[in-house]
Write a structure and sequence with these properties.
The structure is a single chain. The protein has one domain. By secondary structure, it is mostly helical. The protein is built from 14 helices and no strands.
């Protein structure tokens, strides 16, 4: 009987944790962004995420023993994280999520390619095939591939509304892909909780400075949206914590980030269950394909 290697098993679980956490956070973020704004939603979600991380740290208060340059790099990672989130939320406010979401999900492919090319991560052919299957499923779940094809061809008849947010989402993909690579190099072999706590605090501070600089109010006038922001913060930090754990204790960087990139699956499931949204045939097919890819990965 096949038994998955322990390290790969941890990577798969960490990636699935990221997928579920981000999928649930994205489900609540859709409504929050439209009503209280992108940067406001992002700031409070990041700030609230500090609370569960602080509790985790107090349960095991291990100090970070880092040199001066390492601390400087950690500060850079924190600010960088905040700056990576901002264009993502701005893009989703401006444009069509069904078009932008699969573009953002491509960060996982970029990270996998960079890890294999520059950092010597060996990706067996079976895992590569499962990655391709999962990514195709994510694209089909997230939107109509015809929208992407129109964008790639640059058709003049494409509705201008469809491509709003594209520059921001491409910037987000680049920033977040490089951030994940840098974070993976930093977190390897280090206790991840204090690292993530410092990054979260600095990320919140960077978003706060951006809001003040651009004269964006961070006040949530309607109290009913606080529950959404709290849920966003908790599930987002749960996703990042799961990914951080996987990256810190395994060498399967591409497995962790690729599975986490399939966050559209739980979002679609929640939308169908609680909002009674009907899925298109493409989304249904995409869900089946993505799940098949995940199952294939678990058997390798």
């Amino acid at each position: 009987m096949y038994v998955m290697p322990p390290e790969l098993f941890i990577a798969v679980l960490a990636g699935l944790g990221g997928m579920v956490g981000w999928g649930i956070a994205d489900f609540f973020a859709k409504k929050s962004i439209d009503n209280i704004g992108d940067v406001t939603t992002l700031f409070w979600g990041q700030l609230i995420g500090i609370v569960p991380l602080s509790i985790l740290y107090l349960l095991n208060p291990v100090s970070l023993e880092l040199g001066g340059l390492s601390w400087l790099f950690l500060v850079l990672l924190g600010v960088w994280a905040g700056l990576s989130y901002i264009p993502t939320y701005v893009a989703f406010r401006k444009g069509k999520v069904s078009l932008l979401s699969p573009i953002f999900a491509s960060y996982a492919v970029i990270v996998a390619i960079i890890s294999a090319t520059f950092f010597g991560e060996v990706i067996p052919i079976g895992i590569q095939i499962s990655f391709a299957v999962v990514f195709v499923g994510v694209v089909l779940i997230s939107g109509d591939p015809r929208d992407l094809w129109q964008l790639i061809k640059g058709k003049r008849e494409s509705n201008k509304e469809d491509i709003r947010g594209l520059p921001e989402i491409l910037l987000a993909v680049g920033l977040y892909s490089l951030w994940l690579i840098a974070f993976n190099l930093f977190i390897s072999g280090i206790y991840w909780v204090p690292v993530l706590l410092v990054i979260r605090i600095l990320s919140s501070f960077a978003i706060f400075i951006y809001a003040k600089w651009t004269h964006i109010t961070l006040i949530i006038a309607d109290k009913k949206f606080w529950k959404f922001v709290i849920l966003i913060g908790v599930f987002d930090v749960a996703a990042v914590a799961s990914i951080s754990y996987g990256l810190s204790v395994t060498t399967y960087t591409s497995v962790v980030v690729m599975l986490a990139g399939a966050f559209s699956i739980p979002t679609i499931i929640l939308a169908r269950t609680f909002l009674k949204e009907s899925a298109t045939r493409l989304q249904t097919v995409g869900s089946i394909i993505a799940v098949a890819g995940i199952m294939l990965l678990s058997l390798l």
